[in-house]
């Protein structure tokens, strides 16, 4: 069994009663994407997280599958398990569900905090080197009042040592598992409180003001505003890719992930999918990551006959590492035959699935060269692509 040193447990079994109508908040859309998909992706993309377990309500499996979409294929994503009546129950059941994996560390996170960022996750993980637990939190800046039974101020609470707890909350796995088992029957609102009950040492690390929990209906409006602001903090880069493969005897060509019956095949070291190669280069170009040959040298025998989705997935993952977003891709296939039109929709669907973006963000076009040049003579096929990538703005 491959050892999963650090597992993220994302609790998503709540009903979201305070968020009002519209179903459980983790399955609602924020700028066209489900809350749970945004949350899970942050952990799936984190280089120090080895596995992600989502805890769902027993009635929600269909909604979960639909919301996660292409993320379901992520190798780090574990099968979801069913949660309990309270958040604390869901966390405990989540921890019990990963006992067999024997992780060293676990990060517990609310599905309802979709703006969690890589740096906050890293701070929590790193703090576990010197403490039993560590939570993301923010110092309190407002003056804090305690009210009396009549709704009047009883006292002003000194705020110097007060922090607002967020998630993720990270722990040494065996310690928090034991603490949660011992805390059954007590009502505790976060996992740090469970750890405190057990006498564990829990550190505070800076969270992020953006890492809000969607709780009330109005929080969704604030979240949309935040996403708009985040979009404004992005810069847009465009990359270009070009690829050519010669035809040879065969019975099918592979283009943009779709096998098209033909009286020839494309010659190449890999499966010779020129469309995917051009698109891979376009994405790599936009993020300044060289070209396909830098990452997958043709001299390396391991890539012989390789399916080209491997190359495109690498480009996609690099974009994620840069905290970027693929905004749009446009592929043009240049050939007399085969006819591309009948296969365009399937090509768009295949590329969208690999890149984990919506189909309208992918375009596949085709043209001939009016029988001129090598493509016109049917000696080979060319592909051009552009990719537009949003990246966090630099100075
Ligand atoms: N029985 C529960 C209750 C809550 N949660 C999860 O714990 C996180 C934080 O809880 P909260 O914001 O209170 O969510 P809900 O319980 O869904 O909200 P409400 O209390 O308004 O119903 C959420 O991601 C929620 O899905 C859970 O997994 N199991
Ligand atoms: C764990 C938590 O996110 C810390 O702020 C929070 O306590 C969970 O939400 P709830 O509304 O208290 O259930």
Automatic annotation (TrEMBL):
Residues 237-389 form the 2-C-methyl-D-erythritol 2,4-cyclodiphosphate synthase domain. HAMAP family: IspD, IspDF, IspF. Bifunctional enzyme that catalyzes the formation of 4-diphosphocytidyl-2-C-methyl-D-erythritol from CTP and 2-C-methyl-D-erythritol 4-phosphate (MEP) (IspD), and catalyzes the conversion of 4-diphosphocytidyl-2-C-methyl-D-erythritol 2-phosphate (CDP-ME2P) to 2-C-methyl-D-erythritol 2,4-cyclodiphosphate (ME-CPP) with a corresponding release of cytidine 5-monophosphate (CMP) (IspF). SUPFAM superfamilies: IpsF-like, Nucleotide-diphospho-sugar transferases. The record marks 159, 213 as: Positions MEP for the nucleophilic attack. PANTHER family: 2-C-METHYL-D-ERYTHRITOL 2,4-CYCLODIPHOSPHATE SYNTHASE, CHLOROPLASTIC (PTHR43181:SF1). Its cofactor is a divalent metal cation. Transmembrane segments: none annotated. It comes from the Bacteria. 4-CDP-2-C-methyl-D-erythritol 2-phosphate binds at residues 243-245, 269-270, 291-293, 367-370, 374, 377. The gene is ispDF. Pathway: Isoprenoid biosynthesis; isopentenyl diphosphate biosynthesis via DXP pathway; isopentenyl diphosphate from 1-deoxy-D-xylulose 5-phosphate: step 4/6; Isoprenoid biosynthesis; isopentenyl diphosphate biosynthesis via DXP pathway; isopentenyl diphosphate from 1-deoxy-D-xylulose 5-phosphate: step 2/6. PROSITE patterns: ISPD, ISPF. In the C-terminal section; belongs to the IspF family. InterPro entries: IspD (IPR001228), IspD/F (IPR026596), IspD/TarI (IPR034683), ISPD_synthase_CS (IPR018294), MECDP_synthase (IPR003526), MECDP_synthase_CS (IPR020555), MECDP_synthase_sf (IPR036571), Nucleotide-diphossugar_trans (IPR029044). The record marks 18, 25, 269, 368 as: Transition state stabilizer. Its EC number is 2.7.7.60, 4.6.1.12. It catalyses: 4-CDP-2-C-methyl-D-erythritol 2-phosphate = 2-C-methyl-D-erythritol 2,4-cyclic diphosphate + CMP; 2-C-methyl-D-erythritol 4-phosphate + CTP + H(+) = 4-CDP-2-C-methyl-D-erythritol + diphosphate. Keywords: Isoprene biosynthesis, Lyase, Metal-binding, Multifunctional enzyme, Nucleotidyltransferase, Transferase. This is Bifunctional enzyme IspD/IspF. A divalent metal cation binds at residues 243, 245, 277. It holds the Pfam family YgbB.
